[in-house]
Amino acid sequence: MSRHPQRDPRLTRRRGVTQLIHRHLILGLALLLAAPAAAVDGFYEQLLQSGLASRQAGDLVGAERQLEIACFGMLNEPKPLAGCLVQLSLTRADLEDHDGFLEAAGRLLAVERRFQVLDAVGLSPSARSRLEASLRSWASYEMVRGVASFQALAEELLLEQIRQLPVEERRRELDRRAAIEPERSVWRLMWAEAELESGDADAVAKAL
Q1: Which of 24, 158, 165, 168 could bridge to 141 as Cys pair (CB 3.0-4.6 Å)?
Q2: Which of 163, 205, 166, 164 is nearest to 187 (CA)?
């Protein structure tokens, strides 16, 4: 039996609201570039705390709703917004809401790519680990690349993405990357893996 609760049907009914909020958040990211710093309204701070309390009490659906609205109210402040989006992403991961997690995590990565504020948020090692585990399971390399604070994870996702290619396509991709980064031994090692998979022992020896 899964340790996660079954997805509540209310999540589906709220998808339209999520999409509306997402459109406003995209606009908000643009406004962040021009807007002067301003304190987050206390109402949204309270919603954030209420959402965290709801999650602690096991009410994941209620927590998700509160955190979603709280994040909406933090559009003009990258640091609080990033912290809120981390908590929203983790809550959706706990709900096993794949699409919802990717939506929230995508917003988080967009903020982090532009403002590099996660280190200042003060994530606990546990929260960081859970976030990375969910990104590793559900996100693509393309989604994570270019975010300095997730560089190691992006590298993991890239290598795994290449390993999933059919052998011939994988060889071509490894050739392309080895031409760009000839100093990196990982491409040669992955080429050897591909040859080993195809059963060509001589090619493995040459690759190494």
Answers
A1: 158
A2: 163
Q: What is the distance between the alpha carbons of residues 87 and 64, in angstroms, rounded to a whole number?
A: 9
Rounded CA separation 75/85 (Å): 11
Single pTM value for the model: 0.78
Rounded-to-integer distance, Cα 60 and Cα 101, Å? 13
Q: Residue ranges of the alpha helices (H) in 125-184? A: 125-138, 141-144, 151-163, 167-180
For residue 134, how far is the Cα from the chain centroid? 7
Burial class (CB in 10 A: 0-12, 13-18, 19+), 104: buried
Residue-wise pLDDT for 47-75, tens only, equals 999 999 999 999 999 999 999 999 999 99
